[in-house]
């Protein structure tokens, strides 16, 4: 369970907005360095830190990671994003599909959380 005090619903909405605005394109400051979904966004508890200071177990996204993958280097890259079992890791190299699948997953999670909170 995450120790992140930020609201998961707001984080997912912010992340979705970030992706919809082209957020994972190459950085202007470091165009040679590829970006990493989730890790290079405000969703990550280690965002903008040069090194991984906080364990991933403190992140909200850990709640979506299969238990057997929670100790991976980037467990958020093992989150099943759809019924086919696609993950950030399995879709790396196909940015267009990755971003579409991520957006669909986030929309579904946002709706799920909003419905849950309305009861």
Distance between the termini: 22 Å
Rg measurement, Å: 14 Å
How many E strands?
Answer: 0
Provide the domain count: 1
How big a fraction of the residues is strand? under 5%
Mean pLDDT: 87
Inertia-based shape: globular
What's the tally of helices?
3
Structural class: mainly alpha
- Give helix and strand order, one letter per element, not per position: HHH
Q: What is the percent of helical residues? A: 25-40%
Sheet of most strands: none
Low-confidence stretches: none
Q: How would you explain this protein's 3D organization?
A:
This protein has about 120 residues and is mainly α. It has three helices and no strands. It has helices spanning about 10-20, 90, 95-115. The chain is globular, with a radius of gyration of 14 Å. The mean pLDDT is about 85.
């Amino acid at each position: 369970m995450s120790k992140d005090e930020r609201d998961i619903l707001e984080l997912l909405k912010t992340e979705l907005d970030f992706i919809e605005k082209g957020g994972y394109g190459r950085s202007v400051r470091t165009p040679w360095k590829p970006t990493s979904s989730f890790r290079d966004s405000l969703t990550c508890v280690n965002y903008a830190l040069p090194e991984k200071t906080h364990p991933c177990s403190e992140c909200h996204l850990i709640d979506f990671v299969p238990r057997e993958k929670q100790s991976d280097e980037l467990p958020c890259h093992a989150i099943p994003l759809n019924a086919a079992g696609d993950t950030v890791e399995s879709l790396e190299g196909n940015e267009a599909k990755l971003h579409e699948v991520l957006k669909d997953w986030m929309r579904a999670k946002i709706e799920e959380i909003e419905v849950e909170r309305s009861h």
